[in-house]
Amino acid sequence: MRYEVVLFDLYGTLIDIHTDEQAAKPWQELWEFLDATGAHYDDAAHLKASFDQLNAVNVQEARKGAEHPDWVEPDVLPVFQRLYAAGGSMASPQLAAKAAWVFRKASTSKFGLYPGALEMLGKLREAGIRTVLASNAQACYTRPEIEATGLNKALDRIVISSEEGMRKPSPKFFLRALEYEYTTPDRALMVGNEERCDIQGAASAGIDGVYLHTAISRQDDPEICEQAVLSLNGADYDALTAFVLDE
């Protein structure tokens, strides 16, 4: 087989999800949780304003001096810790993570694996292919979701942008994932649902890409990605498996 490692995007590729962090519900529930655990704000609106300000500073600090600022991925967890400090309290990383998870759950209205995701990953692993998550995501949101779906056991490695400090489409992000696997770009494949981040980003690192055009692909993404070695309509794991295994 040509590939020994397959990199997977997460949201829109393995997980079908819809979140709205601007809705009132997540901020109200976060406000209630913070208030109950020692950080006090007048109301949810004041809390959101404080979060936005602290997050902007967090992003600015992380991107300062970067050659490609948009490719830098700061971790949002310290922002939740600073929310406690701004609210007159102190929080451990564990308590801040609980607050982040309260917010994430309240902002999520749709969540679940695409049908057949675990079976597909199992078939690839049975064939001796390493399966690696390569996701633009915040670990404090994503790691609990990975565990909830069983992906933590179905994947050989998990690489998350907020933990690496960089994000797709940076070629360095893809190459970092391959370094962990001790392999080279010509032996790897990237599977994702965004043309620029997943397919073009992987190509910039010399990695082939399979494009899944799903319902949560970007609205301006094409149905068929000309740069991909294979374009599929939706999460067509049967076709993906047949391609990878050269069946």
Automatic annotation (TrEMBL):
One Pfam family here: Hydrolase
InterPro entries listed in its UniProt record: HAD-like_hydrolase, HAD-like_sf, HAD-SF_hydro_IA, HAD_sf
Co-factor(s): Mg(2+)
Keyword Ligase: no
Keyword Magnesium belongs to the record: yes
Keyword line: Hydrolase, Magnesium, Metal-binding
GO MF term list: hydrolase activity
Alphabetized PANTHER family for the sequence: GLYCERALDEHYDE 3-PHOSPHATE PHOSPHATASE, N-ACYLNEURAMINATE-9-PHOSPHATASE
Protein name (record): HAD family hydrolase
